[in-house]
Amino acid sequence: MSSEHHGAWWTPDAPDLRVPGSLTRAEGGWRLSLIGALMVNSGGWDGLHLVPPHTIWGSCHGVPYTLLQCFLDDDVQGPDHSVTHSASDQWTMTWRVGQLVRGGEITEATRFSEAQFEISGLPSWWPPSGLRGPQARSESYTPPDDVNIPLDEGTLSIGVRKNRHFGRRVRSLHERVMAKVDKSSGFTLDQLGKEIVGPMRALVAIGVDEPVSVFNLRVVPEDPIVEGGPPRSFAVDPHDGEEPEEPAPAMHTPLPLSPSLDGMQSFIPAWLKLARSCSVPLDAVEPRRRSGSLQLQLLDVVNAAETLHRTLHEEPTEHPLAKRVRETLKDSGDFNSAERRDVHDAVKVFVGITLEKRLLALAEELGSEVCEWLFNGAVRPWAFVTARIRNALSHGFTAPDGVHEDPGALAGALYLTEAVITLRLLTEAGLPSSTTLTSQLDRHPGMRSLAKQSIADWPALAHRINPKQWPQPA
Q1: CA–CA separation, 239 vs 374, rounded Å?
Q2: Of 51, 344, 345, 419, which is most buried by a Cβ count within 10 Å?
Q3: Main-chain dihedrals φ then ψ at residue 403, nearest 5 degrees
């Protein structure tokens, strides 16, 4: 697919007003540059652009396009770069495009009954047969059976599709591992991304321990039949040129942090359900190329750990001590209702579940064997130091010990917290814990390196923060 497409563009509300422009691939997505302006609310004269995303339809060489989640990137500008809000073919408009659909005009509410997609890394994460890469095959070949995973009102199937090439001197056979989902109740593109494709991409990335990409995503509308034509299907965010490269295998199969093939039918539905309720923690630990300082990355990950604990555990509804304090203040007659309420709320926070306790609980739920293997017996000081660093960075607490500025402490807290969240998500979905998990971690190069890290001495850092609570390590 070419990286630049020229055509006419319009909004569903004003199909008669068509503006020429070009759609180009930009870093992180697509960009639509128009010679003219669409009749949309482009924000106030203050230049804030606080407007909802728009849907834009287009046609390039007879092929229909839909651009979803479009945000106005620049004001409408005339030849002299003056800002205006009138539509004219002499002016320009630029949009950032969130999602591209080729082959039809749809809206965000359009429902689909089927979808098919590939994920780079899936062949190594899910090896259904011994064939690897293009190979000459003279004998007949039959791909292995698909693995069918039941979903609510549907099925997720993962299996091999064969591609044959016949040349004058070479015959080759190439396996493609593909996923297909169908649901009788249908789904929107947003639901497909959040409930199926996104969680599966994250699971594959965790398994191969590096970023992966979704590609060749095609969706079939609930009413695919067009009178006088073949059944319709739409390509979503089609790739340019070559497809994403497969990750280089760094671990032997079965991969340590992926469930067994026999356990997929129970693990995958539990994982997809968990991903819906734990989307923030999952997004925080999915392997990807991240930006931002070490401090900001640590804040994101530790906050995600706190969110995960709150999601997996019921919060206390009764606070007896806070209630007693409030009643005592009321009996004294020296405090008004607002002051009593403020003290009551402060006591609830002070005696409630602290961040340190939440981090420690997440780690200990993996089993004592895992804690000993991963933290070398220092899980408690790790939880204490990590909570202290997060609170100092997030709330601006005075911290004369300077641990929150120690690069080793920051890096150690970041990567160990990521590991705890990742493992806790996997075990919650059905991956074994305790001794079985420890043996799997021992086959994972990244986890082995993390367990042997020497950049953060947790007992020494805890003593540095609070010598009275944490004695000097031997």
Answers
A1: 40
A2: 419
A3: -65, -35
